Amino acid sequence: NNTCSKNQALLINGEVDIAFVINTGIQNNTIKKHKISDDEIVIVAHHSAPDTLDELLRSKRYNHFVINEKDSTYRTMFEDFLSSNLMEVSKTTELWSIDAIKTFLIDDMGFSVLPYRTVEKEINSHKLKIIEGNEQFPTFYSFALTRKKNWDNNLIDLFIQETKLYMGSNKIKGEID
Question: N- to C-terminal Cα distance for the chain?
């Protein structure tokens, strides 16, 4: 479990063959970028939480941001959004597992900002709900990153293809520049 920047560094240093990241884009031209899926980032909280971000941040009970590590791309995006909109969070709890974050939220202890696909089951079962306020968030994408080589690696290509099928985006093919 690493941040996206750490996974990318491990790939560039040759410590891994494939790195998975979520970001709005990848600017590094020394690696191959394989777009796996589009990932909408949503604000989520317990089903009894206020419906809007403004209301949630005014609530003593719900103004508790439960999120992953500081270098997380969507955490950084949300914190920049808060700052540029002069909004403040009163308490932040940092956890390194999306499952642990979801457990906090289901136990009615704050809110988070996560990729929709990671909380879709909990939203559909009414354990969590989407809080209005993410309309200005950019679309993020999941990428599998590989090193550029002068030769093809059929095993990596097959793994990327199977990952795309698993993620339900088999219509997205090839490299993204």
Answer: 26
